[in-house]
Amino acid sequence: MTQKKGIAILGSTGSIGTQALEVIAAYPDFFDLQVITAGKNADLLIEQALKFQPNTVVISDEAQYQKVKTALSKEDIHVYAGDEALCQVVESNDVHTVLTALVGYAGLKPTLRAIYAKKTIALANKETLVVAGELVTRLARENGVNIYPVDSEHSAIFQCLVGEFHNKIEKIYLTASGGPFRGWTEEQLKTVKKEQALKHPNWSMGAKITIDSATLMNKGLEVIEAKWLFNLKPEEIDVIVHPQSIVHSLVQFQDGSMKAQMGLPDMKLPIQFALTFPDRFQTDFPRFNFMDYPQLTFEKPDRAVFKNLDLAFKAMEMGGTAACILNAANEVSVEAFLKDQIQFLDIAEINEKTMLGLNFVPNPAYEDYVESDLQARAFAQSLVKK
Ligand code: NDP
Ligand code: MG
User: Fold this and answer.
1) Do 161 and 141 fall within a single domain?
2) What pLDDT, in 10s, does the model give residues 260-288?
3) Cis peptide before 278 (omega within 30 of 0)
4) By CB count within 10 A, which of 214, 309, 366, 375 is most buried?
């Protein structure tokens, strides 16, 4: 029998992480769960460790180390804490693929360390490519590392490209559900409550990405993610709203032919494909039925009302640290919205002001990204307090 594939899941306590554990548990002859990590949720990490018996667990919140260590003292499981441990565990010889399912900028450093260690990356943490796509993809090329997308739209594009990697892409269309406020006016959006924004029509996800979906920032981040994953120019990427979330994205080739990938919205499929590529494993996931969806519809995104999408296109065109600045501002503004410190429309306003307020570095090194992230966070935070 061939060797099992050693997997590290960074962010196993999140929405993607918990679904990834289900995928891995379904194929015990194929996967070997090596590492799981949590930010703060020690209870769930302990529960997962007892159930799935990984080799190693990491809790980033060092204050909770003793709790996790004590709970797992009878198990044959290594326990570590802190951000440096998170980076070190991905370098283990027993890890083949690192699934990056952390949320936000925090994913960048461990992903870079995994690339230096020549691990295959299954990338859910889109912010990594938004912040430092040039650096990440260059290092991946230099180290012979493949980055397989987990984000459903990018997985769709990737699945359409299988067998077509030598053919030039003319354009890609990323589909967007439009979120809970599709069709709403600016006036209506002024009074939106957090609870409304947290109700996504088709997907159940972590809080940050759910708010990003409601503001269309998620699609903006995905546009930038696609640029780096598929080496595209800004004019080769378009966004189309498709409220049913059945067509997960499309590729248009030079001869005008278009390919789409379809299926019911279920993140387990793209997670699994990223871990089993180039193979497809049999699943019992519910199948699509045409009669349940007699109409699949498409419409233009409202870029005047949902300004974040335009900001992302602008940041992509600017290059350098522009997207890093936008991402940092957005992490701060979304968190402030979730804490009821600002209104829904303030999110895009803070993002725009931060982009305008900071100088960007055209040809950044890693340290420039770190510095820009810090500056943009401080700037955005000062706007929250006003
Ligand atoms: P969640 O908020 O549900 O989970 C995030 C995970 O990261 C948790 O395990 C959390 O730990 C951990 N974490 C958060 N901050 C830190 C930190 N500073 N240091 C270490 N660990 C941290 O997010 P999702 O699973 O929804 O999303 C994860 C990523 O995948 C995001 O980048 C998102 O954009 C992307 N994605 C998600 C999709 C989805 O369906 N959810 C779809 C497509 C992409 P803890 O909870 O223990 O604190
Ligand atoms: Mg997506």
Assistant:
1) no
2) 999 999 999 999 999 999 999 999 999 99
3) yes
4) 214
Whether 87 and 204 share a structural domain: no
| 134: CATH | 3.40.50.720
Where are the alpha helices (H) located in 148-297, listed in sequence order?
152-161, 186-189, 194-197, 207-215, 217-230, 268-276
Ligand 1 atom nearest 210 alpha carbon: 26
Query: In terms of DSSP bridges, do strands 78-81 and 56-59 run parallel, antiparallel, or are they unpaired?
Result: parallel
Cα dist. 252→154, 160, 166, 367 in Å?
A: 14, 10, 14, 37
Q: Is residue 384 part of a domain?
A: no
Domain annotation covers residue 308? yes
Strand pairing partners for 57?
36, 79
Q: Residue 38's domain spans which residues?
A: 5-149
190 in Cβ contact with 96 (< 8 Å): no
**How far is C-alpha 251 from the chain's CA centre?**
20
Q: Model pTM?
A: 0.98
Q: How many residues comprise the chain?
A: 386
Q: Pairing state of beta strands 247-253 and 169-176?
A: antiparallel
Whether 60 lines ligand 1, by a CB cut-off of 6 Å, is: yes
Q: Ligand 1, residues 35, 59, 88, 102: which to mutate, most atoms within 8 A of Cβ? A: 102
CB 60 within 8 A of CB 82: yes
DSSP H helices, 277-321, are 307-318
Q: Is residue 158 part of a domain?
A: yes
Q: Is 57 in the pocket of ligand 1 (CB under 6 A)?
A: no
Ligand located closest to 41 CA: 1
Please indicate, yes or no, if residue 385 is contained in any of the structural domains: no
CA distances from 91 to 118, 120, 125, 263, 327 (A): 8, 11, 18, 35, 27
Instruction: Give the pLDDT confidence of 6-37 residue by residue, as tens digits.
Output: 999 999 999 999 999 999 999 999 999 999 99
Count how many domains the chain has.
Answer: 2
Query: 183-212 b/e with 16+ CB inside 10 Å = b?
Result: ebeeeebeebeeeebeebebbebbbbbbbb
